[in-house]
Each structure stands twice: as structure tokens, then as C-alpha cells.
Fold this protein.
Amino acid sequence: MSKPSIPKGTRDFSPEEMLRRNYIFDVIKKAFISHGFNQIETPSMENLSTLTGKYGEEGDRLIFKVLNRGDKFLKSLKNLNSEENSQGQMEHQLCAEGLRYDLTVPFARYVVQHQNEINFPFKRFQIQPVWRADRPQKGRYREFYQCDADIIGSNSLTNEISFIQLIDSVFKSFGIKGVAVKVNNRKILSGIAEITGQPEKIIDITVAIDKLDKIGVDLVLEELSNKGLTEESISIIKPLLDIKGDYILIISSLKNILKDSMIGLKGVEELEFVFNYFKSNPLDFVSVQLDMTLARGLNYYTGAIFEVIVDQAKVGSVSGGGRYDDLTGIFGLKDVSGIGISFGADRIYDVMLDQDVFPDFSDISTQLLVINNGEDVNELLRLSNLIRSKGVITELYPDNVKLKKQMKYANGNKIPYVLFVTEENSIYSYELKNMISGEQIILDVDSIIEKLNF
């Protein structure tokens, strides 16, 4: 018999881990609700036609395809001629569905499908798992949760500011140190492509620049060359990768560099609006940084793009998002602008663990174990339920076994108190033991409840 295992890039979660994960979800959900977002859910599987072509060539390769079943599979197999089909064509013949890669594209599909039921601008959030056929490594999983919020049906730049404020409130609640929101604008990247004289290379430029932190300047430039950009084009792009300093200086430099690109100047104008606001109204907790190398390789972004990083953390970005002007257009609903962000709960978990900023969860785990002495189980059940109804997390050990085993259970589950119940002449007495100090005291039921409601 083979040893039990799970697929690479997936994980089991212990009760202690679930306490921490649910805390993360609760904080983010509370922040979403406080900013006026309403929750929806979409299916784990989408039609493959819904997913493909939205994430770029590299993203499409990471979509988990779901093999057709039954007669449909046999029919697809019969019609398949591997000598005349590429791998992609074969996959589309054998697979009609895929696991969702993110929550944004399914959301766009949802908006189009339910447009007659929605009041615009529509503010929604989702907290659900997504799947990517990626190479597993620290901070990168094949199955993980995203926590998304989007506003669709409004092109106001106040939404960009509101989302950065939302990011600030979430990470302030977590108490994570060294958080920075990096901001750029895809219109600027389009402007760069335009002034190189190779605007058709915008996707290649974006994908390459997005790898800058991982592979460095030289390899980015090499990738651009391999994608067919001319030496002249690369010479225009290279100085932009080195622009640093105060945002006012960067904005001034960009206005000069992009003076012949209307779309590029529009992107600079949008960035300037956002940064001027935060210059006058600084955030409480996170810093906001203008980063010209931020690209985010997803094809649907058209305006502001965000990425949240944590200083010295080795898990990559912990949140990201941006503006998309016509994502719903791919499903038939044209000219509907939207903006959204996604929090990576799994990466946030790793960072909080590294920084030791999770709260103490002892008040939401079992506080009292009623020892089972086997004498009057009905009374023990009644007593346990009574104490539980008064707000004390209480459990009764289910079996009448040796006291040593029950005490071992209490210690193993870090239960701070145990209760011994004895009966003599139909009169019950209650002895409460503090498992940390070892102190044992005899109390009535009301006093026990009062003591444990700490």
C-alpha cells in the first residue's frame, strides 16, 4: 500500500493553522464590508473559453484544464489527430472547462451575465480558492486563496485612492511591519512602447519588465531583444528601468520622456493625481511608492497598477491589482471601467508567522474540559451545556477512561481548565483545576462561569 500524500503545491491545515487563516479572512472581510463591498461567489470551474486569452501566454499555460468526461471525452479522443494539432489545440479538444486562475475574470463574466440585476457602480468582494499549474516553492502554491474586491462601472480616480486606503487599513489591522504599496500606470508602459516605435510589442515589454526584480536588468534587456525589439527601442527603455528618487522628480522626467505620447502623458496625469492626494493626506501605516519597473503581466490592466510588498519578506507581493477599462468587453459588455485588488492570504500568513504578529487565540479555543467520571453522564452533559450557554467554550470528555488519559488530552489541546464533578447523596460538588498553575479550588457553578468568562 502506497504512503498517503497530497499533490505538490497543496496543503493540509491543522486546527491551529485554521485559527490563523480564519483570522486573516475575517480582518480582510471586515475591511471590505466597512468600505461598502458586497460578497459574491463564483464556481470553482469555468468554461475554458472564459479563462483563456485573459492572462497572457504565460498565464494561459498555468490554467488547470479539466478533462472531458464520459461520451464527450471518447468523442473528443476519436476526433483527435495529434499529428495535425498543436498541444494547445489538443487541450481545447479534450478539455472544455478549467479551474479558475483568479477571481477577476470570473467576476467579469458574472457582471456580464447578471448585468440586468446589478446597480452600477457595483462593489463586490470574493474570498475563494484559485488554482495555478505553477512550480511550487516557498510562497507559491498551486492551490491558494485570494481575497478580491472590485469596483466596476466607474472610471473615477477616487477609486484608486480608496483602494490604497483600504490596503492601509488591512495591513494596519494585521500589524505587519515594513509594508509598501508600489504604484505605476499601464498607460505609461503603453506610452513607452509607443515612443520606441514598436507599440505592438507592449505585451512583450510588460512581461519582461515585470520580471525585473527576479532576473535583473541585463536579463530583462536580453528577453526584450529575444522578443524582437530593436537596439534603438531597448536603448529608450533601459534608462526608464533606472528612474528612482522623489515622485515629483520621476513625474517631471516622465513628462519629458513621454512628451510625444498622448497615452503616456495621460498615465502620468493619473499618477500625479493619486500621489498629490497622498502628499497632502499621508497614510497611517503603509508607504506609497512610485515604481516605474512595476508592470504586472496580466493583459487586462489598462491604468493604475498596484503591488504590495513587505520589507525583507521572501514571499513576493502580498497584494496587487489595478485598473481595467474594458475587461467585460471580452464577454460582450463594452466600455465598462473597473478597478480591483487582491490580497494573497497564504503569503500574508507566512509574513505574519515570520513577524510573530498573530494574536493569542486562547479565548476562542476550548476553555474548560469536564472530566468524565462515568457516574452520571446525563448530569455531566447538562452541566457542560449550561456552562457553554453562558459563553464559556466547554467540552465534555466523551469516554469514561483513566484520568491520566483525559488530563493528557487537556494538555495536548492546551485547555487551561478542567472540572471534576463528584456526587454524594444526590449533592454535586465541583472542583476546578488550573492546568497551568496546578491550583485546584472548589466552587459553585455560578462562580466557575464568572471565573472563566475572562
Observations:
- The radius of gyration is 28 Å.
- The CA atoms of residues 412 and 439 lie 19 Å apart.
- The first helix runs from residue 15 to 34.
